[in-house]
Amino acid sequence: MPSYRTLARRLSAFGALAGLAHLLVPARLLAAAEWGYDRALAVEFAPRPAAPRRVRLIGLVMLVGAALCYRLLGRSR
Fold first, then answer.
1. pLDDT reported for residue 76
2. From 62's CA, which of 1, 19, 29, 68 has a CA 20 to 30 Å away?
3. Is 9 exposed, middle or buried (0-12, 13-18, 19+ CB in 10 A)?
4. Which residues of 64-77 are buried (b: 16+ CB within 10 A; e: fewer)?
5. Do residues 55 and 22 lie in contact, with contact meaning Cβ atoms separated by under 8 Å?
6. 46 contact partners, CB below 8 Å, separation of at least 6
7. pTM across the whole model
8. Cα torsion for 40, 51, 31, 69, to the nearest 10°?
């Protein structure tokens, strides 16, 4: 089993990648959510005009959280 430090680094790397995706391609993420809601839940998903901005904000929060995870949890031994 990987160490706690390794798990923290993997978690922060995954969070950083997800945050970058939210920052760079919010419209595609919203389109994927729309497709998933339609197929899996059989409900209509209609994002509002400000949705891409909110998706980018979530991406920024994810990047900050990944950086904090890396700095705080990655130092443990």
1. 54
2. 1
3. middle
4. ebbeebbeeeeeee
5. yes
6. 34
7. 0.83
8. -80
Give residue-wise pLDDT tens across range 15-71: 999 999 999 999 999 999 999 999 999 999 999 999 999 999 999 999 999 999 888
- pLDDT of 5 over the 70 cut: yes
39 is written with which tokens? 């197929």
User: Are the C-beta atoms of 55 and 30 separated by less than 8 Å?
Assistant: yes
Smallest CA-to-CA distance from 63 within 28, 17, 25 is with 17
Looking up tokens 């994810």 gives 62
Rg (CA), the chain: 16
In contact, 43 and 50? CB cutoff 8 Å: no
Query: φ, ψ for residue 19 (rounded to 5)?
Result: -65, -40
